[in-house]
Design goal:
- This protein is of the alpha+beta class.
- The strands form two sheets. Strands 4, 5, 6, 7, 10, 11 and 12 form a seven-stranded antiparallel sheet that branches. The protein has a five-stranded antiparallel sheet with strand order 1-2-3-8-9, with no helix packed on it.
- It starts with a helix and ends with a strand.
Length: 189
């Protein structure tokens, strides 16, 4: 019996240390912040070839004023090679061309506006990027600060794209959706 007491008294610090380690590891696991979701290809035109890429990037920030803030994850949409976006082109500004959700695309009207230089297409080999969401990361980010936030680049309405590939040229309309909870971008066609 005395021998059992000696073993128990020697193992008590080991058990306490083990319990504290498990509690610390569990607390750290609660703070593991997952990175951005995997890339997703989207076929907007229905020709079987992807037109858009829902993607992410990591922007590292070195700021001595915020030592535990390491940067941002950004989530957005990029056009793929052969895909162009339609722009309003006026002498005073240039903005994305949008249509109402219920409106059918009138290709004759689009062709006329392109002819008169009211509309123009972006370059098909130069990707157009829409960065829609961002999430801070680093050891100093608290649970209250953690989460996906809008970047301020908000695109209202339904945008128009043109996809040119070996199967031909197609025009389609799409819109961005940011369903709650944030952290996802959905393309609605």
């Amino acid at each position: 019996m005395a021998r059992f007491s000696a073993i128990r008294s020697r193992s008590a610090p080991l058990v306490v240390t083990l319990l504290l380690t498990i509690q610390y590891v569990h607390a750290q696991a609660d703070r593991i912040i997952p990175g951005p979701p995997a890339d997703e290809y989207v076929d907007v035109t229905g020709d079987g070839i992807a037109d858009l890429l829902i993607t992410s990037r990591t922007v590292h920030v070195s700021d001595p004023q915020q030592p535990g803030y390491l940067g941002m994850y950004k989530l957005g949409v990029r056009t793929l090679s052969g895909t162009s976006m339609l722009l309003w082109s006026t002498p005073s500004n240039q903005r994305w061309y949008t249509v109402e959700d219920s409106t059918r695309l009138d290709t004759g009207l689009l062709a006329k506006r392109i002819h008169f230089k009211q509309l123009s297409w972006t370059g098909p080999d130069q990707p157009t990027e829409f960065w829609l969401l961002e999430r801070p990361f680093g050891p100093a980010i608290t649970k209250e600060q953690d989460g996906w936030y809008g970047t301020g680049e908000h695109y209202e309405g339904t945008l128009v794209l043109r996809s040119a590939n070996e199967r031909g040229t197609s025009i389609a309309a799409f819109a961005f959706e940011l369903p709650y909870p944030y952290g996802r971008v959905v393309i609605r066609t």
